[in-house]
Amino acid sequence: MADAESGPAGLSLSAARFTRATDRLVECARFYREIVGLTQLFVFEDHAGYSGFVLGLPDASAQLELVRLDGAPPPAPADPEHAVVLSVRSGFEELRTRLADHGVAEVVPDNPYWVAARAFAVLDPEGWMLIVVPPQAGPGPVRIEEFVGDRAQIAWSFRMAEDSEQMLAGYIGRGRVWVARDDSGAVVGHVQAAPEADESTWEIVNTAVAQPLRGTGVGRRLIEQVVAAATDAGVRRLEVATATADVGNLRFYQRCGFRMTRVVPEVFTAAAGYPEHEMIDGIRLLDQVWFTRLL
C-alpha cells in the first residue's frame, strides 16, 4: 500500500474528510461532539443553502462533516455497513459508560471482524453505526490450525482477499483451509490451498490476515503451514496468483520464496464479478500474475 505521508506520484495529504447529509443536524452534531467527544472544528450556516458542522480529531487530520441543504429530500437510510470507526488510544471504557449513561444502546455489527477486535458499536441519532475499537496492544500469541468447520463462518476473511462474490462462490469449498487464531480463539487470518489435477502441484487459492496483524509475520506463517502440509503430501510445487496491481502482494510472495512465472491479461473484469475500474496503489486492477515455489 502507498505510504500514508507520501502517496502515489508524491501526493502529500494534510487531511481526509467524510461528508454526510443528515436531517437531524443538531442532534447528530451534539452526539458526536458532546457524548462521543470529537472536536468541533467549525460550523457554517446558510452557505448557499447548506448548513453544517465539521468535527474530527484535534489535529483535524480526520474530519466528519454533517451537512443539511434547505429543501432537500430526506437522505437515504443508513446501510448496515455505513459506519464511523474510532480507534481509541485511551478512554475506551469511559466512552462506553458515557454512551450508556445517555441511553445509547449497543448493537452488534454484521461484520464479525469488529467482534473479534473487541470493539463495541452503537447507532447515532440517524441510525448510522459508530464502532469504537479499543487500544490494540502488541499482537499476542497466534496459533495456526486446520479449519474443518463450515467455511461460510469465515467467508468474511476470504472476502478480505476476494472482491468477486461470483469467483468466491466457485472456489470456497475447494481443498484445505488453515486459520490463524489469536489468544481469544478469534480467527484473524486464513489460507486455502487446493491440489491441481495431477496432484503434484497445489494452488494457494485465497489467503488474508486481519488488518491489525498485517506485517507481524502471521501471513508468512500461514504460507509456511501450506509448505509443510504440501511437502508431507509429496507435492513438488506451489502456485499462487495475485493482481499485477497489488504491489504489496508482489513483494510478499517473493519474500516467501516464490518466483514470477507468467502474466494473464484481463482477469479481474466486470464479467468475472469484479468492480469496474478498481484501482490498487494507483494501478488499475485488471491483469493477473502467477508465482511458483518449488518444494
TrEMBL record:
PROSITE patterns in alphabetical order: GNAT, VOC
Instruction: Locate the transmembrane regions by residue number.
Output: none
Q: Which InterPro entries match?
A: Acyl_CoA_acyltransferase, Glyas_Bleomycin-R_OHBP_Dase, GNAT_dom, NAT_camello-type, VOC_core, YycE-like_C, YycE-like_N
List keywords of the entry alphabetically. Transferase
Query: What molecular function terms (GO) are annotated for this protein?
Result: N-acetyltransferase activity
Q: Which PANTHER family match?
A: GNAT FAMILY N-ACETYLTRANSFERASE, LD18367P
Name the domain of life.
Bacteria
Occurrences of domain N-acetyltransferase (ranges): 142-281
Q: Which organism is it from?
A: Nocardia aurantiaca
* Coiled-coil regions listed: none
Q: For the VOC domain, which residue ranges apply? A: 14-135
Show the CDD domains listed in the entry: NAT_SF, VOC
Entry protein name? GNAT family N-acetyltransferase
Q: Does the keyword Transferase apply?
A: yes
